[in-house]
Amino acid sequence: MKSFLFRFCVVLAVLVLVNLLSSFLFFRVDLTQDGRYTLSEATENLLANLDDDVHVNVYLTGKLPAGFKRLETSIRETLNEFQARSGKTLTFRFIDPTANPDAKQRAEQQTQLIQKGLAPTSLNFTAEGNQRTEQLIFPWAIVSYQGREQPVLLLRGNRSNSSEEQLNQSIENVEYELASAIRRLTIKEKKVLGVAVSYTTIEPLRLSDLLATLNEFYDIKLINLQESRDLVGLDGLIVPKPDRAFSEADKYKIDQFVVNGGKALFFVDGLKIDSVGREGTYAQPLDLNLNDLFFRWGIRVNNDIIKDLSCAMIPLNVGDMGDKPNVQMLPWRFFPLVNTFGKSPIVRNLDAIYTRFTSTLDTVQAVGIAKTPLLMTSQYTKILKAPALVSYNEARQQPDPRTYNNGVQMIACLLEGRFQSLYANRILPGDPRAAAFKAQGESTKILVCSDGDLLINDINYRTNAPYPLGYERFSRNTFANKDFVVNAVNYLLDDNGIIAARTKQVTLRPLDRIRMKEDRLPWQLLNLLGPVVLVGFVGVIWQFTRRRKYA
């Protein structure tokens, strides 16, 4: 009896000690091979420093197909990790907007979600019994903080992939999407992002969607380079579609901004195209007076234009049908659809990107500069040197794939390292700029894209309202242009590195469907009867041992 009491007291003391320690020490162990439950360091820091309550409502729940149920489980597991790392500052709830039995109330609830920008997705799938089922889901969440809300799209992926791969990409993006929304709401001090508008004739309305999105993360300032003494005070600079040559003075400002650690994104064209007619116009070389600066940094924008068999469609009148024009959607090779990406968190799991009149990029040797290709064309390309004829009638011609043999072409590149000034050994001691001049400075990052139209949104001229960036009004598809630019800016300027969460990779391990169908019954019997037989076998052994011991 004393021995039993002693063991009981020891066990009780150990349990009390473990509970006391657990109130002071916290740890969780991720035993998965791909680290799917491990949050990035930046996300953990974000959650640990929350100064007020954050609440998340998730609307992707209910009776879902197996693949979406897996996505729901991943969201729930991620939010559990968020809650644990935030010290209970973050709370969440799953709400099924289709569960209300009252049809009128259900419709009102769904209308409210749509008015908040939560567009539903219609699913068509085969349920059990080979019945074709159509279901409306809301793959969204709403993050709330101090009376403000931020919608989060949880279903993201490249639409050219299979549905299973898209769902897997969505699972990989869950942490980044939720953490990015929390950062957007809780950010206190915004970095300053300049937009150089003095060398472009693009009207501000055509940059409005991108700037409105970036304004949630950064303090946006429109910069007139000619009137600015320097670029001191800016953390980043965007140069959107310049169409005339930079002066040497303004080029020097950009050079010193980069050498001193400033981040810059250049969206520039290699050719100038004024307007395109049915018979065509000749695209001429565009001299921006930036070639020597880019060359010093290790990149070159070529004076050419890409034709790609993977391209967007345009409406074209191919003839008359009676007294009415016959307008058809035809592929126009001058508008490549980019769906080949490099290895970078900027472009991981992105959908296709819509480009127009794109030139090629080449890399050249630059000491200490690492270059990462980001956007590439398909392998079926044709390169036209300037002057290049650009004609709408080209869409009516049947292309010969054998002539599209220039292979994959790079159109966006990330440069990282310590950049050397173009003006090294040029600034004389008596020059007024000599005191502040730097020949080589801090490590920084630059992005160069050879398509100035990539970050420009179209306009609905009937309402004079901007379309979302990446929206193609003829096919009514929204491409990933805005995601690409926002990811790039975040990668360059976000010192916390939340975008590192986009590097998470969850391995897709599909089952063999043929073997599933053939061997379904044996595996079902094993899963149903196996545990029962195992428990019974252990019970028999236990009873046999007891009888033999105490007989």
TrEMBL record:
Residues 33-144 form the DUF7088 domain. The chain crosses the membrane at residues 521-542. It comes from the Bacteria. Residues 190-488 form the ABC-type uncharacterised transport system domain. Keywords: Membrane, Transmembrane, Transmembrane helix. NCBIfam families: GldG (TIGR03521). It holds the Pfam family DUF7088. This is Gliding motility-associated ABC transporter substrate-binding protein GldG. It comes from Larkinella humicola.
